[in-house]
Amino acid sequence: MITIIAEKPSVARQISRVVGAMERKVGYYGGNGYCVTWAFGHLIQLAMPEAYGVTGFRRESLPIIPDVFQLVSRKDAKGKEDEGVKEQLRVIKNLFEHTEKIIVATDAGREGELIFRYLYQYLGCHVPFQRLWISSLTDKAIKEGLKNLKDGHDFDNLYLSAKARSEADWLVGINATQALTIAAGKGTYSLGRVQTPTLEMVCRRFLENRNFVPTPFWQMHFTTEGDGRAVKFQTADRWEDKADAEAVYQKLKSANSVTISKVECKEKTEEPPLLYDLTELQKDANIRYGFTAEQTLAIAQKLYEAKAITYPRTSSRYIPDDVYDEIPALLQSIESDEQWGGLAMTIEKPNRHSVDTSKVTDHHALMITGEKLQYPSNDDKKIYNMIVARMLEAFSEKCVKELTTVTVEMDGISFVAKGTVIQQQGWRFINNEGNDPDRLPNWKEGQMLPVTGWGLTEGKTKPVPIHTESTLLSEMESCGRGIDDEELAQAIKDCGIGTPATRAAIIETLINREYMIRLNKQLIPTEAIACQNRAG
Prior knowledge:
With 536 residues, this protein is of the alpha+beta class. The chain has 17 helices and 18 strands.
């Protein structure tokens, strides 16, 4: 008998159907020489300090550093034994003890690997295991994955990475939380390896915004006419002194005409956007629909389990060559779609901008699978359509623009008007973008233009905006770029803090612990931060 273990019941059900194990048992499916069981996420976790003889928050107990970390079954919200977990562990233990081989079908990523390895270790199992490593849950992907199972120990480093992260979270979280709580003298204040620097980002941005003192400035402009419409020329420079600005304005405003001193045209090529990874999807969904990072992840996971999209917890925006070879067939699969079919048919030769095998991590970029989406909710359709639209953009032609800059010089002051002509709409056609909204008339150098009005406008410098989930996700992803220490910056280059799979949970943890709140789309720190600062 072969035992397959999935991460959750819904995935186990799909795999059992593919392998012909359709007889429902308590905690698993059986048949055709297979038993397909499941976990409920992390059934096993690291033991709390009580397991090492440390009770209560006492200064003399710190730091708490176990020689060997102990594993325990997951507890409920009150810290008691979870009967559902205990029962499923008994089922899995029995299957593992009577099987000749285990196929690991937990999510093909770092956390999925840890879920199985902790379970394997906790049960003291020594049965050989292989890995089902797939990027979608379509029948085709599952069948091909089962034909090409990988040696389980090929993923030992992935497991060790997950184990190190888990233990680092424990060491920092347990010790820092107890230390701060003891210093505060009352209440409980939680700190964490990732949540604390994330909270610092939110607080720093909030204080920068609130403490910002705007500086006034002045700019001059004039309007003229061309091709039957008004065109505005504005000074390239700003005046910080109002008196200086008004003096220049009084001198120039009597002019009834101006002469074009320079017309410059440049061609600009815009490659299509890369395919989505999870973080980019979460950022765009927050901007477009106000979805939280957690909402977007939950919907994407639902679409994945419905076979509609590929593995969502990906950090890559690229695909390998073998996946690119399947793109024409994938585009053809949506040609009958009322919304996207016509657009899909315009792509004759898919663009290779998102193709780079060397930049594919555990999983390639997010795409649809070609499976029809069954009974989607409105929110499901929004996320699914975002992924379809981005995929069509990514494989469309580049956009080519002609950028025109027209300059007028008056007494050493430059006035500029800029316009754009779309020469090839390319990928912007997918969302109907780029229709020459600011085309300039066909003006020539030396041409005289009538002035229809002058103006002097006061403006003020603006603060950096308070973080939204979209901007916070961006900073979490790229925070290493702002570190002065070269060695530290290199250590987290291109990975930032957290992972695409965990950043949503980090944000929710900070909100649930009342360290910050959502106000409209903004993330606002709470008074609990002031309490922490006083305790520190």
